[in-house]
Fold each of these.
Amino acid sequence: MAEASSYVPNLFGSMVFNEKVMKERLPKDTYKALKKCRDEGIPLDMSVATIVANAMKDWALEKGATHYTHWFQPMTGVTAEKHDSFISPNDGGGAIMEFSGKELVRGEPDASSFPSGGLRATFEARGYTAWDPTSCAFIKDNSLYIPTVFFSYGGEALDKKTPLLRSMDELSKQAVRVLRLFGDTTTKKVTPTVGPEQEYFLIDKKMYDQREDLIMTGRTLFGAKPPKGQEMDDHYYGALKPRVTAYMKDLDEELWKLGILAKTKHNEVAPAQHELAPIFGDANTASDHNQLTMEIMKKVAAKHNMVCLLHEKPFAGVNGSGKHDNWALSTDTGKNLLDPGKTPRDNAQFLLFLAAIIKGVDDYQDMLRCTVASAGNDHRLGAHEAPPAVVSIFLGDELNAVLESIEHGTTYKGKKQSALEVGIDALPHIPQDTTDRNRTSPMAFTGNKFEFRMLGSEQSISGPNIALNTIVAEELSQFADKLENSKNFNADLQSLLQQVIKAHKRILFNGNGYDDSWIAEAEQRGLSNFKNTPESMIAYISKKNIKLFTKHNIYTETEMKARYEIHLEHYNKIINIEANTAIDMVKRSILPAVSSFMDALSSSIISRRNVCKSIPCTAETETLKKLATLSDKLYHTCEDLQKALDSIPKNTQKAAYYYHDTIFSLMQEMRTSADEMETITARDYWPYPTYGEILFNI
Ligand code: ADP
Ligand code: MG
């Protein structure tokens, strides 16, 4: 292999039609027009698009691509693509490779099978895709991938990218208004930056293939705790096993080719669990890249005879997987607005942005909670391994003390002996918190960014970022409205901060979020606690939230109602598949296996008694009795579950509650019996690889 100093840079972005390639291959004017379009959102002429399309095609052909596809993010949570070849017939009966501006800019995939929540009546099955020039095209598996938005005939968003782009624009607009208040006349654009840390499990393909539940649902529906779990804390940051090292190396290279800045990799808390973190980028690219990362993680695992599990809770009793959405705001002049800065003026500006986030998170706790709700994440949030289902903010001691001083106008205990005057005094040094000691907080300030830690590992990061962007845009717009006409800016700013801190400090919590006492305290503070997906989804249709999103043109009311339907339907389908899989496993594998083992036990008892009546067979008899009781119970619960599945309410919302309260509970009950049976059934008889075998095999 070539020396890494040139090998990696040559590899990096080699499959991306990026800024460098654009500059090299496009005529100057075209490049300029495209750059303006990418940076400032100025629409491209079709004549310019045609030149771009041609250059893209030539570049793609040189890299071996034969096809192109519009790549979009429908509400399924995964990406979608439909490939067309560049091929076009010519006069002599041959073929030439062509790609027009129109084909680059617009596509018309048959959309009838994507979830639309009733937005697209089936007679109007058409959906449209439109090129998103702000995210770079790339080549994968011999196709040119063009990132696109996806919308209906009536213009309603059918995807996760459209509202994300809308929310980024709106946030930029409001943030720039606020920057003007502080005398910043140069910043034209503010971009939310995002770095998503991604957790995952790697298991052996042979094990996976033997587990119907993993294949059908992505998680184990049964499985007793292994003798050794994660209690030794020996996996976190532990030395990587050779197979894992080989996988990660391959994965890095595949991601680098696509211009994804994969940076950090390490073992996580649970056995067989790992994490990958990229260097942050703008929220749109970060979101595209995270979708690609998840896809490639699975693909590369297959090459190594492993399976990458992205489910939020593949194994009960073992830590599940989440995603940390690191979020900050960056100006087009290269400044991070969540960096407290060094001068009193920078500090004051930072404090105002901080106040917007504090107020926004408090005002819209329900909305943030709802964006991370899913059947998979229901297993984690509030289960003492991930943040609780209650949203709160961690600021750290230093910043907390600063806010207290502002709130009360009291002496700040730092170096100054007077009360902290915003805009006049400098903030004390705020340490960059890179430790894990506050990992229990749903939303932690870590020195120059917020880390939203409630996301599930498998989910798209778009939803949470759409909400964050919009919420902060709303609060910034309120602040700008108030301060734009101020006669005494510093004093008005100070009193605004005071008001915000007073009214919203209930959302600030520095303690241990896993502690039950926090949940009780949070309730006293009036914070909301939505325990599961059906409860959380209401946020999509609350008056307050509809007002927020429609005011900023992120979603229409119809789009929000559609999203509510889609998410609940998705939840219902998942539980339904899980329930049917569980029944199948119990009836066709677990009960028959245990029955065979009971036969063996019975034969053994009988034959021993034949030798001598008084010979002890306590172990066999007692095990037999226990298994007989458990299998009886398991059978009946399974019957109950099957019956319950026959009476699912028609209404989506009612069905969701029913799936949660009735179906899921019965599944848990089944699991309790089955898992106990596993622990007393001879190894050779149990039909599935155990947790121990799966988790400690690589
Ligand atoms: P940790 O969370 O383990 O302390 P880091 O602070 O290095 O690790 O960063 C974690 C993630 O946060 C990385 O993906 C990193 O790129 C991202 N990140 C760092 N700075 C920013 C920022 N300004 N905006 C968004 N994400 C950021
Ligand atoms: Mg982190």
Amino acid sequence: MKQTLKILVVDDNEVDRMAVRDALTKAGVQMELFEVSNGNDAFSALSTTAYDCVFFDYRLPDQHGLTFIQQLRSSKIKVPSVVLTAQEDEQITVQLIKAGTTDYLSKSKISPEMLVQVLRSAIRIYWAETQAALVNQQLRESHEQLIRKNQELERQQQQIQMQNFKLLEVSQLKSHFLATMSHELRTPMNAIIGFSQILFRSKFGQLTHQQADMVERILNNGKHLLMLVNEVLDFSKLEAGRLDLKAEIFDISKVINLAVSEMRSLADAKNLSLLVQTDLQNTLVFNDPVRIKQILINLLSNAIKFTESGEIWVEVKELSASRVTIVVRDTGIGIAPRDFKRIFEAFRQVDQTITRKYPGTGLGLAIIDSLVRMMGGKIFLDSKLGSGSMFKIELPRQIRLFTEAADAPDVQLDGDDIFSSAKNPHHSSSKTR
Ligand code: ADP
């Protein structure tokens, strides 16, 4: 209890007021005691001064004790209060406590010990109640804050969902646009390529050396442009999940040789040796030959593009009876390990500047990646800056299609499983991307 307490006694009976004053004085309570005789004066006193406790008579001349305590409670005045009752009436006591009185005491029991005990406990109870109310208030506030935050999060979540929908819509529009545009571009490109080829035929007259040179450039540029357009078309189809593999049984070594022979002139133009090694006991596979060739052409055109001198090797081997591997190795500029993963993402190139030395769409490896995944295969990359790169593709000899039951071939040939004769090859270690 603090040193000097400010105490207010409200009672119209002077003798009763004196009894309280005497008892508190005898108990040695250090205090400033103020006395008023009715409820109205008590309110005036309480609204101008902060008291540590108020003792009030249950029967005040101007109002009932219950009304007094109710008014006190509903006003902004905060003070521990002790009601002094003339007779012990439990019902009244309960009502008063419910209405907010801190404690009560029968006037017949007023004694220094009793009064000081009631005073102490009233102050203690009051502070405990105040603290509890404060904590409650804080809890309520943080609860309200949580509700507000929750609402905000829900709102943000809805916004993100909306944005996701919009992004999805835009992405679908973009894929659709790319597919339509590349499809539309293919028709005139094919005409340019076709008519340039026709111009070479002698039945339309002999071209001069200069004319032939120009037509050849038109043809080569046309082919290059068509390849780019096809890349964009494939990519948009892959993104939209609309690219299907058309699997058949074919001789993989023939497809590899075909792709290599198509790329040889490019390698020759840069004075690069292009070597092929096929080490297969069984050359038959069940896959999409067009896509296998496309993968190889992409890897070879990269190898040629990024190699200034040296060699390019293509190796085809059997990993096991059920798996084959195609390796394309070069002695080119190489790739830093930090870019291993990135370069398989669409439109990603190690050099992304406009002024980059090597042209390209940045779609080749992304397309290869998707195709190899669709085939149930894996890509491995090993490379060292300045020394060269090695792309290894492992593929199942027989790919699985989504509509396998309908599309799978009869793998029996002359009573034997055509894929059963593969020998077990050696296995080279490399970094997985
Ligand atoms: P593009 O060749 O059209 O740029 P790709 O998706 O085929 O796109 O390749 C992505 C990037 O990966 C290339 O831009 C290049 O930086 C790197 N890259 C691919 N192949 C090689 C390679 N054989 N040697 C060095 N870098 C390569």
